[in-house]
Amino acid sequence: MSIADNALTDEMASRDDMIVCRGVKKWFGDFQALRGVDVTVKDREVMVVLGPSGSGKSTLIRCINRLEVHQEGDIIVDGVELTNDLRNIEKIRSEVGMVFQQFNLFPHLTVLDNITLAPIWVRKKPKAEAEAKAMELLERVGIPEQAAKFPGQLSGGQQQRVAIARSLAMEPRIMLFDEPTSALDPEMISEVLDVMKDLARGGMTMMVVTHEMGFAREVADRLVFMESGDVVEVGTPEHFFTNPQEERTKLFLSQIL
Amino acid sequence: MTDTTIDTAPPEAPLPSPVRWVRDNLFSSVSNTVQTVAFTAVLLGLLRWVLGLVFADESNWVSVATNMRLLFTYNYPAEQFVRIWFAAGVLFVAVGASFAAWNINPSITLRRIGVSLMGTGGITLVVALITPSATPSGLRTAMWVLGVALVVIAAVVLRVIPEPHRRRVPFLGLLIGVSAIVCAIMWFVPFGDYGFSEGEPTAADGIVASSTRVPWTVLFIIMIATYVAGRGLAQVVSLAPLRRAMIAWWVIGPAFIVFMVLRDPEFDWAHIWSTDLPMAAGFALGGGALIYLLAAPGRSDLARVLGAIVAAAAVFNWVAAFFGWYPMLQKARFSFALAAIAILLVPNFAGERSARLRVAAVWAGFMVVFHWLLTGINTASTLDITAPPFLGGFVLTVSIAYYVMLASFPLGVLLSLARTSKLPIFRVLSTTYIEVVRGVPLITVLFFFSIMLPLFLPSGMGISDLAAVFAGYTVFSAAYMAENIRGGLQSVRRGQYEAADALGLTTVQRTSLIVLPQALRVSIPNLVGQAIATFKETSLIAIVGGFDLLRIANSTIPNQPDFLGQKRPALLFISLVYFVVAYTMSRASRNLENRLQAGQAR
Amino acid sequence: MTLTTTDPNSARARHARPPLWRNTAVLKWFVQIIVLLAVLAAFWFFAAQARNNLSAKGIPVSYDWLDDPANIQLGEGIQTVDDPDGRRLTMSRALWVGMVNTLRIASIGIIAATAIGVVVGIARLSNNWLARKVSSIYVETLRNIPVLVQIILWLAILGSLGKLTVDSGPIPGWVIVSQKGISIPRVFFADGFYQFLSMLAVFAVPIWWVRRRMRRTQEEQGGTQRIGSVTFALSLVAVVIAWFANPVMAFLGPVFDGISDAWAVIPQGLMQAVLSIVAVLAAVTWIRRFLDSRRTPAGLAKLIDDDWFRMIFAGIAALLAVFVVVRGWPGLSSWIINSGSDLFGVIGDKFGDGRGSRPLDAMKPTLSEGRFVNYGPTGLTMTVFYASLFFGLVFYTSSFIAEIVRGGIQAVPAGQSEAAAALGLNRRQALRKVVLPQAFRVIMPPLGNQYLNITKNTSLGIAVGFSEIVQVGQTVYNKNSQTLAVFSIYMIFFLACSLTISFVVNTINRRLAIVER
Ligand SMILES: Nc1ncnc2c1ncn2[C@@H]1O[C@H](COP(=O)(O)OP(=O)(O)OP(=O)(O)O)[C@@H](O)[C@H]1O
Ligand SMILES: [Mg+2]
């Protein structure tokens, strides 16, 4: 596991940078949501993104797999730059998994079909192989017995775990999480966080937007604090929770902790 | 979809005592009492007026009875009727099998049956009481007897049998019961036997002709048997393949039926062997092989380039044929165009060997059916017809409605996708089309197509009247279809698109695998509503020259020397026919809606 | 697979553009433009075919025939034959008569269908069992029988009524029902009507001013001023004054005539210039607005490829419009000039010194030569054709409106009226202030659709020989084979109707809309 380093400089950037954002700017009409964001996530690193509501966390993470299109700056994912190039977009989308706050499972497909859909149609896998893999993943997230059900028949926590399994089925090198536990009842949060901790331990590169400070403290290699479209501070958990540098970070942490 | 039956009916409360019921529902307050009095007057007045129309002295109902065959099948030659019955048989089998496949078995309580019997009986008695003096006395007596009988049966069901609101009659029982009643009426009620022989109306007392009652009885038996067989099959095997087969049947089947009903082709075997079969085989196998090769992962660029080339060639074929540079066969032109679309779509369905084989097989099967249908349509009918148009009456009404729905569906899907698309030119084009078509009356569209379409075609190309009208209906209906589907598309939440994108699905895959299945399910009730509207709108064929139900009732029958000027009975009769069909459909759609809602709530 | 792998360390310049055939923005627009070209090509192709086919038959498309004498039999309308005092029944006049007939039946039909539909819809929610049953039978029966069948059935029923005499019908002399139609006394606009209207318009200004003053006082000082009653009383006074004093407004006649003359001398070149400038200005405004919406607070606009394409398209559209106005279709400008002048001329004719002072008049039905005189000072007669179309449309549509009303009221959650009751509103207040406004928002859009349907369905009058626009048009093109021209008139007329209706409905809906978010 790479050791986080606050003072990451250009010289030290290397092949094991999985996500590189440099000067990323994004406007919605005349509203600027990202004002030149610089973030780098290394291979096998877990990066947690913090920030008040409306600070552009979701926008940033959605730019990384091109659900939103950034207008200025560079985003390079696993050595592939995100441009209008169809092939680069395809490549990045199949390498980056994403988990949404609202799960976004496909309600007309069974759990199993939800998971095998992309491997079959995008990765062109044989059906049997995809299903075997899906069952394996369902084991891993702890709900193999739900395979034949429809998403509407599952609890929120179960749905989110299916959503994670669905992303993992594409064998991504990077996982993006946008507030995966915010829509869940308290008793279901831990079951989802456990799955995410497992993933992190397994060495997955992850970028996680969350308000779960316990999770951030335990799992994150580094944290980013954003406000109004700017990165305010980057650092390790000890750095953040014991000795934040910026006033705004202190204020935010004092409110949330 | 799971096979759990969903019981949508809420538990029914037991029936209150009659006195209590009357007090609660009719005389609970002053205003309530006033309403009861007012609406009683309205009801009796209207009923009496309608009965006056039906049983007036100048209404000669023999005109309807004698022309039954004309109304339903127009000039279809009687000696060929077995084909109509065969087609109807196929239809009934399909209905029975579909009921079984989708596990449709709404059971209803005895109480509901009792209440509706009571209502029917009560209305019959009121009618018997106020019907005008012109009513035949036999009929009036029959009404009295029937009314009393129904009320007595209803009273027994509701009051003697314990807990009628808990006892349910299963669907099969209902099916058998209704069929039995319909058949019994045909076998025992002395309607009389009317018809034409040698152009002269004939009339005989007794029950309806055996050529009517026997086939109908057989049809009902077939339907019930299919249903039972289907249910039995469902116990043994999974329903999914049956459902898929039924959907395919409902799409292809009608074409097959038309083929059965309209055509008695004397096949030109020489042409078939020299041209038709080789061409079909060439497109099915050659195209299939090409598609198999292109469906390998990583050949998407090649497929796009090849697809563009074939598309250009297909367009060129059409242009060349239009200007008469060289007359390529219509079938080949269509097939090339379809091949271009298929090749362009192939990268979306690429995969490993079995997936590739499946795509190729779908193409080959599609080509075979397509060539067979096109051959069928282009082969002259050799039915021996005495009067020029032989397609007409109820058969025309129903088939036009069905084919219009079928043909406008893909068009409507494309238009709605374009209208909700993010691409501005597509949106503008589709919105313009939809709004212009929805802004003008159907009749002008139909006139436009029946008069103008021939003008728009290059010289030497013709189009039959009915085909032109059909095209008009399709164009019109597609715009409304698009709006209905758009409602469904808008109900698909943005997260669904984003999840599909994040998984790396292409736009075509996202649309066909994620968005449309959800959108269409939501649109089903609206689409059924549109089917009803289309069914009713077919009556406009009468204005543009087709012999549909309305035209026959309004001008053919009143012009027969024996029934000069007899419009009213026939018009009332066809109103009843339209009503029965449309009302049944709307009831079915309401049930379906409940079913879907219950399904959603899981 | 080769990928544009980039070294994150190199400079910004490396920002490689993807090749054209893989660039999503380019692909997107390429596909759209191809489809657009294909559609245009198909249009061009069909238009060329139609032109060739028509020229081959010797009937090139033109609109010159509009001024030809009509020589057609119009069943009814504001003018059915050449007027003795000079106004000839030209083709265009005949089409105009058809349009008026359509609008007449549509507007009265809309009112009648709404009235019946609302009553039936509310009856479907009654607490009385019989009311519910009867109204639901009404709805189910009428909406499941095709409207055309109903119209023709009505014709068959009305056609078999008794012979026409003055004292046939339920109230002899006043309400006459016969196989020739239905006749009732009528109130009609007499000579002074337009002067009366313009006078009312003049009075509206001070009344509105008083109203505003009172409202402001009420807001400042609280309490309830009797705004409604005062407005009503003032309006009543205004109506009474205008009723007697309306000849005063006769001077408006020459004024409108003057405008008409002035309009007629506008040179065609000026009109073309004005139209071109309007087109260009529209495009420029659009582009500027668009640029503004893309502009960041900091400075210049951030334009993506899409935005460039859009602006180029707007520019091209404007140039095309200019081209059409100046070269392609000079008739457009002269048409605007001529019809504008005609319009003001017609308005001018409605005023004048010779006009009597009574704005409204009423008459009983009168018989002449065994049939009703329908226009002019006489009773209001529905011919059987009119009546069958009218009854058919109204009853059919009312069944749909009833369902819409019922659905709209049911769509208001029960919690709303409970909340109103909890606030102490009584039943009537709750209905008026809480339930109905919300139901209205649900009801309005589908109701507008039904109004549009009535308007379009008037075209079924062709089946019973009622002279509405489609029937008249058909007679016209059967005479002179100008099918394409007549169809273009149909289309413009009905599109104008539907735009008007949707505009009105949208405006009402916007007024009613609860401001959300
Ligand atoms: N599609 C959009 N159109 C316009 N503005 C948007 C859009 N999406 C986001 N924004 C704006 O961009 C800003 C950043 O939004 P974003 O969703 O990234 O915030 P966030 O940090 O994820 O907040 P939260 O914690 O509430 O999810 C917000 O002010 C939001 O209003
Ligand atoms: Mg967010």
List keywords for this structure.
heterotrimer; A: 257 residues; alpha/beta; six-stranded mixed beta sheet; four-stranded antiparallel beta sheet; 37% helix; disordered N terminus; C: 517 residues; mainly alpha; MetI-like fold; three-stranded antiparallel beta sheet; binds adenosine-5'-triphosphate; binds magnesium ion
- What low-confidence regions of chain A span 5 or more consecutive residues with pLDDT below 50? 1-13
Number of strands of chain A: 10
Query: What is the radius of gyration of chain C computed over CA atoms, rounded to a whole number of angstroms?
Result: 30 Å
Question: Oligomeric status of the shown chains?
Answer: heterotrimer
CATH class of the domain at 61-167 and 380-517 in chain C: Mainly Alpha
Shape of chain A: globular
Q: Provide the structure class of chain A.
A: alpha/beta
Overall pLDDT of chain C: 82
Tally of helical segments of chain A: 9
Tell me the major beta sheet of chain A.
Answer: 6 strands, mixed
- The CATH architecture name of the domain at 61-167 and 380-517 in chain C reads Orthogonal Bundle
Task: Give the strand order of the largest sheet of chain C, numbering strands 1, 2, ... along the chain.
Answer: 1-2-7
The end-to-end span of chain C amounts to 49 Å
* Structural class determined from secondary elements of chain C: mainly alpha
Instruction: Give the largest interface.
Output: B-C, 57 and 60 residues
Summarize the structure in words.
- The complex is a heterotrimer of chains A (257), B (602) and C (517).
- Chain A is α/β, with parallel strands linked by helices and 257 residues long.
- Chain A has helices spanning 57-64, 86-95, 111-121, 127-141, 156-168, 186-201, 213-219, 237-242, 247-256; strands at 17-28, 31-42, 46-50, 72-77, 80-81, 96-99, 174-178, 205-209, 222-227, 230-235.
- Chain A starts with 16 loop residues before the first strand and ends with a helix.
- In chain B, β3 (193-197) and β4 (200-204) form a beta hairpin.
- Chain B has two domains: 18-254, no CATH class; 266-601, MetI-like fold.
- In chain B, the strands form two sheets. Chain B has a two-stranded antiparallel sheet with strand order 1-2. Chain B has a two-stranded antiparallel ribbon with strand order 3-4.
- The relative contact order of chain B is 0.09.
- Chain B starts with 17 loop residues before the first helix and ends with a helix.
- Chain B has 23 helices and four strands.
- Chain C is mainly α.
- Among the domains of chain C are: 8-55; 61-167 and 380-517, MetI-like fold.
- Chain C has 15 helices and seven strands.
- The longest helix of chain C is centred in the N-terminal third of the chain and has 33 residues, at 24-56.
- Residues 1-14 of chain C have low confidence and may be disordered.
- At the B-C interface, α2, α16, α17, α20 and α23 of B face α1, α3, α4, α13 and α15 of C.
- Adenosine-5'-triphosphate binds next to β2 and α1 of chain A.
